[in-house]
Design brief:
- This protein is about 35% helix and about 15% strand.
- The chain has helices at about 35-45, 60-65, 80-90, 100-105, 160-175, 175-185, 195-205, 215-225, 230-235, 265-275, 275-285, 300, 320-330, and strands spanning about 1-5, 25-30, 50-55, 75-80, 95, 115-130, 150-155, 210-215, 235-240, 250-255, 290.
Length: about 325
């Protein structure tokens, strides 16, 4: 882990009161520094409040449990919904009561008890080979169709992104039907689940499979990377279930740390992160969809076209998390 102090300036602060320049906040973050540094630097510019960031890819909840009341965390930023759920389940966060947050963040993208709020959205897309399949009008359910036998690549079923997708399938179809779907999807895999989302697109470009499951923002990242652009150029991005319930959405988010000693200022920062300026920076830097409805995605992301999102409230996925893990074990998806 390392501590990073923000250095760059972007955007405008809206909705914050003046606070003492002597104050400091500490953010524990699963999100990488390059994304959040510019946003936090602008918050510091507008308020005088310095923000220290402790970044880690994993283990933040465990760290906070060890630290207990001595924890320096004021806010926690996560890269997916299930880490938000984990923080709440382990009693590591407290409600952030704010009319501004409720106004900026749609109800389906925040906790009913104010324990966490989404910041950005990403779609769980289906990528298809441009040369061998072209664009697809596809549903997630179709991934179990025998016509795709030996043609699908995906990362581990136990990764939070895929657990979330399975949970959504249970929510819409029940456990029995979701299990049958998982068995069909597994039988259609071209190889054992492995790698990350980008690795699946790479596999399609190399002809190892014709379909990959991956989050939307990875396509933007690959298109900006000269080494990975050929992978991205080899696929079509498809938004599943457009003729019915809509595409599955996952989120990054934020929560107020249980033992913060700066509640008012910490909530002020959370409000800023939900503001137009911060939301636009998230969209432009990380190719994600802003959670604030009136903020537009980046030009590149917008070029992929509009899509219909699943209306299932994100917080309801928590009800099916355990069942999703159980089904993945039962079908031995990763083996």
């Amino acid at each position: 882990m390392r501590v990073i102090t923000s250095l760059m300036m972007v955007g405008l602060l809206c909705s914050a009161s003046v606070v003492s320049a002597a104050e400091r906040l500490t953010v524990y973050s699963y999100r990488q520094a390059f994304l959040i540094d510019p946003i936090l630097a602008d918050f510091t510019k507008q308020t005088g409040v310095e923000v220290d960031v402790v970044f880690s890819k994993k283990g933040i909840a465990e760290r906070m449990m060890r630290e207990g009341r001595l924890s320096k965390a004021d806010i926690v930023l996560t890269s997916d919904f299930y880490r938000l759920m984990e923080l709440a389940e382990k009693d590591l966060v407290i409600p952030a009561k704010s009319d501004v947050l409720k106004q900026n963040i749609p109800q389906k993208y925040r906790s009913p008890d104010d324990m966490w709020y989404a910041l950005t959205m990403r779609v769980r897309n289906v990528y298809s080979s441009k040369d061998r399949l072209g664009p697809l009008d596809i549903n997630y359910e179709d991934l179990a169709d025998p016509k795709y036998a030996g043609k699908i690549c995906t990362r581990s079923g136990k990764h939070p992104y895929n657990v979330s997708l399975v949970a959504s399938m249970i929510a819409h179809h029940g456990e029995a039907e979701a299990k049958t779907w998982l068995e069909g999807l597994k039988s259609n895999l071209a190889r054992k689940p492995q790698g990350n989302d980008r690795a699946q697109v790479k596999a399609v470009s190399e002809g190892l499979c014709d379909i990959a499951i991956g989050n939307s923002y990875y396509l933007g990242k690959m298109l900006q990377d000269p080494k990975q652009k050929p992978w991205a150029d080899a696929v079509e991005i498809n938004f599943p279930n457009q003729d019915n319930r809509g595409s599955h959405i996952n989120v990054s988010g934020m929560a107020l740390a249980k033992h913060t000693k700066n509640t008012e200022t910490a909530i002020q920062l959370m409000e800023f992160l939900s503001s137009d300026a911060a939301q636009q920076t998230y969209a432009d830097v990380n190719m994600e969809y802003p959670v604030k409805a009136d903020v537009k995605p980046s030009k590149l992301v917008a070029s992929w076209g509009q899509f219909k999102a699943d209306d299932l409230p994100i917080y309801k996925l928590a009800q099916y998390h355990g069942a999703a893990i159980k089904l993945l074990d039962e079908v031995k998806f990763d083996l």
